[in-house]
Design a protein that fits this description.
alpha/beta; Ribosomal Protein L25, Chain P; Alpha/beta knot; 2 domains; 5-stranded mixed sheet; 7 helices; 13 strands; 31% helix; elongated
């Protein structure tokens, strides 16, 4: 006797939608999300779609009506509650668009709680399209099956970031001039944490001095080589997750 296929199938498309979602609820999608499901994924009536609302978790929905430009889904069951996200902020210097897109995408996949773009003297970029950045983050969360979106903050200047830094959060400062080995430093300071990573040209002397003067700062090294800004951000996040995160 053939086995009953799992429902919803693992291949079902995933989308973040406005919430809150509730069992037995009805969701209507139009615009780009409907286009994606109808024209790209070719969903039809009876097909499953996984929906997340960044509030209640992950839900299985069944398509009950598929039109030309919109579709309706009935929520069948909650599959998972909203995940507990590791308490890590990534404070990354603003980079050129494609490179910062990579930081946004990989930081989301790796599981950070908050992404804080930082403006520094040697930053090549000085603006961030937040709407577009949120789309990058959302698509990455859908792809990697997160049930919680990372908080994405507006860019802030380094001096303002340091001035308002919360006393209870350790600030690991990826300093190309040296510091403690990253993994050991992470393990020695449990609790709320953040990573500060510099721009293409690195920190200037005044910025480095200001960061090191912050009482919560802990200089770290990411090895013997000088890493690009996006590489440093991704590598440091991966090491933290491997040391005391949710890996």
């Amino acid at each position: 006797m053939p086995a009953t296929p799992a429902w919803p199938p693992r291949s079902a498309p995933r989308l973040f939608v406005p919430g809150p979602l509730t069992e037995g609820g009805v969701v209507t999608l139009d615009g780009p999300q409907a286009h994606y499901l109808l024209r790209v994924m070719r969903v039809a009536e009876g097909d499953a779609v996984i929906l997340c609302d960044d509030l209640t978790g992950e839900w299985a929905g069944k398509v009950t009506q598929a039109g030309k430009r919109d579709l309706t889904l009935d929520l069948v069951e909650r599959l998972r509650p909203r995940e507990q996200v590791p308490d890590l902020w990534l404070c990354a210097a603003l980079l050129k668009k494609d490179r910062f897109d990579l930081v946004l995408e990989k930081a989301t996949e790796l599981g950070v709680r908050r992404i804080q773009p930082v403006l520094m003297r040697r930053c090549v970029a000085d603006k961030l399209n937040l709407e577009r950045a949120r789309a990058v983050v959302t698509e990455a969360a859908e792809q990697c099956a997160r049930t919680a979106l990372p908080e994405l903050a507006e860019p802030v200047k380094l001096d303002a970031l340091l001035r308002d830094w919360p006393a209870e959060r350790t600030l690991f400062f990826a300093d190309e001039l040296g510091g403690g080995p990253a993994a050991a430093a992470f393990a020695a300071h449990l609790g709320p944490a953040a990573l500060l990573v510099g721009p293409e040209g690195g920190f200037d002397d005044a910025e480095r001095e200001a960061v090191r003067a912050a009482p919560q700062a802990r200089p770290i090294t990411l090895g013997p080589r000088i890493l690009r800004g996006e590489t440093a951000a991704i590598a440091a996040t991966a090491v933290w997750m491997g040391s005391i995160g949710d890996w």
